[in-house]
Write a structure and sequence with these properties.
- There is one protein chain.
- It is built from 13 helices and ten strands.
- Strands 1, 2, 3, 4, 5, 6, 7, 8, 9 and 10 form a ten-stranded parallel beta sheet that branches.
- Helices cover 41% and strands 15% of the residues.
- It is of the alpha/beta class and 285 residues long.
- The protein has one domain: Alpha-Beta Barrel (TIM Barrel).
- Helix 12 links the parallel strand 9 and strand 10.
- The termini are far apart.
- Helix 6 packs across helix 9 and helix 9 runs parallel beside helix 11.
- The protein is globular.
- The longest helix has 16 residues.
């Protein structure tokens, strides 16, 4: 296999098979800060922020640290960019994924995937079309052909990009990660059918916040019914060898999260005001 470019997939394939990421907004300051972190990747949060493709492109460029690339002896970006796009699964909007992938994003996080049809659409949108007689035809690709910016961002030729721009783990050498957010009770009910019918799912990411809204206990992450549903997602994912993700990992729960088998860990980016608080206390304010 050629050198792995997607650092999140690399982490999921090696060692303890755990990848670390964080949600960040598509801003230069965030990219500069997180490019120097120990994360395997970042997920640019564009579901709950305006879809600003220029801001995304600029932020992705500031993830590239020439010194780290040179020291690694690899063309790969050392902080793998993924993008959470705006539409819910039921909206079937493929163009958001197409635009993010065409910039060079290494994967897409799809919000609120609830049915096998929505999951199929998500994976299809991240694949190029091929003949029905070709290997690994399903899910049939829908992505349009405009690879030049992405190939340049990855540091490969266009033909090499075509070979590697497929979804993992369906294509073992694929560098594109498709993460489906499981965020409502319909998705919980359909989960076994989703994973059985749709190959190419790279991560199942539990959407705790949306689930608690539907359950009538907003942001109450210790709710017994929520915990039961999260356990169900883990069990189904593990039975099909699909990494399962946790979106709210902190210093208080990280040990438990790892023990429970989560493999795609999203640490919470928190601003540190400890020096300010200490200074105000010393100043008598």
């Amino acid at each position: 296999m050629a050198e792995r470019l997607n650092g999140v997939i690399r982490a999921l394939e090696t060692g303890r098979r755990i990848a670390f990421t964080s949600f960040i907004q598509a801003e230069v300051e965030n990219a500069v800060s997180f490019a120097q972190s120990a994360n395997d990747g970042v997920v640019f949060e564009m579901e709950h922020t305006p879809w600003d493709i220029r801001a995304l492109r600029e932020a992705m460029q500031f993830l590239l640290l020439r010194q780290k690339i040179a020291q690694a002896g690899s063309v790969a970006c050392q902080m793998t960019p993924l993008v959470r796009i705006p539409p819910s699964g039921s909206e079937m909007n493929q163009w958001f994924a197409k635009q993010a992938l065409d910039l060079g994003a290494y994967g897409i996080v799809w919000p609120r995937i609830s049915t096998p049809e929505e999951a199929y659409n998500a994976v299809s949108a991240c694949r190029y079309p091929r003949l029905r007689s070709a290997p690994l035809y399903e899910p049939a690709g829908l992505r349009g052909d405009a690879p030049m910016p992405a190939a340049r961002y990855w540091g490969v030729s266009q033909q090499e990009y075509y070979k590697r721009a497929d979804v993992w783990p369906l294509a073992p050498d694929g560098e594109v990660l498709v993460a489906l957010m499981i965020e409502d009770t319909t998705a919980i009910e359909n989960l076994e059918e989703i994973v059985r019918r749709v190959p190419g799912i790279g991560v199942l990411l539990v959407g705790e916040g949306d689930l608690t809204q539907e359950l009538g206990c907003p942001r109450q992450y210790d709710n017994p019914e929520l915990l039961r549903m999260m356990r169900h997602v883990r069990e189904v994912a593990q039975a099909h060898d699909i990494p399962v993700g946790h979106p709210h990992v902190t210093g208080q729960n990280v040990e438990r999260v790892i023990e429970e088998g989560y493999r795609f860990l999203m640490t919470f980016p928190k601003r540190d005001f400890s020096a300010l608080d200490q200074g105000r206390a010393l100043a008598g304010r």
